[in-house]
Specification:
Layout (H helix, E strand, L loop, with lengths): L2 H29 L16 E2 L6 H6 L6 E4 L3 E5 L3 E3 L4 E4 L5 E5 L8 E3 L18 E2 L1 E9 L8 E4 L1 E2 L2 E8 L6 E4 L6 E3 L2 E3 L4 E6 L2 E6 L2 E3 L3 E6 L2 E6 L2 E3 L6 E4 L2 E6 L2 E3 L4 E6 L2 E7 L2 E3 L3 E5 L2 E2 L2 E3 L2 E3 L6 E3 L4 E6 L2 E3 L2 E3 L2 E2 L11 E4 L2 E6 L2 E3 L6 E4 L3 E6 L2 E3 L12 E3 L2 E3 L6 H8 L1
Parallel strand pairs: 1-2, 2-5, 3-6, 4-7, 5-9, 6-9, 7-10, 8-11, 9-12, 10-13, 12-14, 12-15, 13-16, 14-17, 15-18, 16-19, 17-20, 18-21, 19-22, 20-23, 21-24, 22-25, 23-26, 24-27, 25-28, 26-29, 26-30, 27-31, 28-32, 30-33, 31-34, 32-37, 33-38, 34-39, 37-40, 38-41, 39-42, 41-43, 42-44
Antiparallel strand pairs: 35-36
Pfam family, one: Beta_helix
Keywords: Lyase
GO molecular function: lyase activity
Length: 427
């Protein structure tokens, strides 16, 4: 063999040996990633890899008091008892939907419970009467249950909780329940579906952000009770078995730029002394009814599109008043030239109901081909400004308003069908 060939063979053997050694070293490090290492970064703590523990709960229990990260591997993990988190500054992160935690308990147990420790102490050693934990994050995994299981995520007294990129489905109760997680709760980019109760149920929370989530076929999509400063935007709600958004005893909130479709009940309801809430730029389509103001004051309903509602696109009830209704469109599926997009058995389209209310401004709205009336007035309804509205192909009670101002309102018939369209129909 030539000297150059010998040198090449030796070099190849040496490089192969070195690569194999490095790969073995890396693999050993991965398999033992929780082993103590000398970090160059002062104050750092290693990530806890759940793959190195007998259960996810053991990995969570390994989090130090200062907090830490638990990394969940891909796989399906069946549980019968709740995964319990009682520490703050915790991130439980999965590998996307490839990490699937399934609650097979049939006795009503929740899948994940997050709350302060029961024996929380004050600095003086006495029991803390109002314990809290701060900054718990759940991210990037799939969480499922069954018809007899409890809630998916049950969080109580957790401040600044952040749930992001979680699929939460098929639970026997609420998908996510935030119980007095009152400081800055955030739920975003989640898929919340097929839960037997409310998809996202919040009680006693404030400064709430609910953004860019999908809600489908829960009993109700979202409930916000006894709170304030809800910011709900950019969500898609579809096919709910009862209501879309239920807001009760809440003020200073906004529900905007949401798609709310095919809820069997109400798309949005404000009840139990709501005030100072804006409902704007939502599409309310094909629901049992639209926005229902049962007990609300000082609220604005603006720039929404109401289409194909079975009844009561917007209803302002006897316990509601001081409402602004402006720039909304109430319509059916009309697409021009005498045509409607939907079949003749799906022409539902409802208008505005003023039910014994007082102090309402209705301006700059368009009502077209809604039934039975564009505006239905149930007496006594008084002190209404009804102006600058356009009514096309409808009947309306707005002229029955008493102690009110009615001006600049145009009532027009349906647009005539063009000649070429008539001929096309004959053919």
């Amino acid at each position: 063999m030539k000297r150059s060939q010998i040198a090449f063979a030796f070099s190849f053997f040496f490089v192969t040996l070195l690569i194999n050694f490095n790969l073995s070293f890396i693999a050993a490090g991965q398999e033992n990633s929780n082993s103590p290492i000398k970090s160059k970064l002062a104050g750092s703590r290693p990530v806890i890899h759940a793959i190195n523990y007998a259960s996810i709960q053991e990995a969570i229990d390994a989090i130090p008091a200062e907090g830490g990260v638990v990394q969940l591997p891909p796989g399906k993990f069946e549980i019968e008892e709740p995964l319990v988190i009682t520490k703050g500054d915790v991130l439980l992160i999965g590998s996307g939907s490839a990490t699937h935690i399934h609650n097979k308990n049939e006795a009503g147990n929740d899948a994940i419970a997050i709350h302060p420790p029961q024996d929380a102490k004050l600095p003086n050693g006495k029991k803390d009467p109002k314990p809290r934990i701060w900054r718990v994050q759940l991210q990037n995994f799939r969480l499922t249950g069954n018809e007899k299981s409890g809630r998916g995520i049950n969080a109580k007294w957790v401040q600044e909780i952040y749930i992001h990129g979680v699929t939460c489905s098929y639970h026997g109760n609420d998908g996510i329940f935030l119980d007095f997680c009152f400081e800055d709760p955030r739920v975003s980019d989640c898929l919340i579906t097929y839960n037997k109760a409310t998809g996202l149920n919040t009680i006693g929370c404030h400064d709430i952000v609910v953004s860019a989530n999908h809600f489908e076929e829960n009993l109700d999509a979202l409930r916000c009770a006894d709170g304030f400063n809800l910011c709900m935007s950019g969500n898609n709600l579809d096919d709910h078995l009862r209501d879309g958004v239920i807001i009760e005893n809440t003020y200073g909130s906004i529900v905007c730029a949401n798609m709310i479709e095919e809820c069997k009940g109400r798309a949005v309801v404000l009840d139990k002394e709501c005030y100072g809430i804006t409902l704007s730029a939502n599409v309310i389509a094909h629901n049992g009814s639209g926005i229902i103001l049962d007990d609300a004051h000082g609220c604005a309903v603006s720039a929404n599109t109401f289409t194909l509602l079975a009844a009561d696109a917007l209803k302002i009830g006897p316990k509601s008043g001081r409402i602004t209704v402006t720039g909304n469109n109430f319509s059916n599926s009309y697409i021009g030239n005498g045509k409607v997009k939907r079949r003749t058995n799906d022409l539902k389209a409802a208008g505005l109901i003023l039910d014994k209310t007082r102090g309402v401004t209705v301006s700059g709205n368009l009502f077209s081909s809604v039934r039975p009336k564009a505006v239905e007035v149930i007496e006594p309804t008084t002190h209404v400004i009804f102006g600058n509205n356009l009514l096309i192909d409808v009947e309306s009670d707005h002229e029955k308003l008493k102690e009110s101002i009615i001006k600049n309102t145009l009532v027009a018939p349906a647009e005539p069908v063009k000649e070429e369209q008539k001929q096309a129909k004959v053919k």
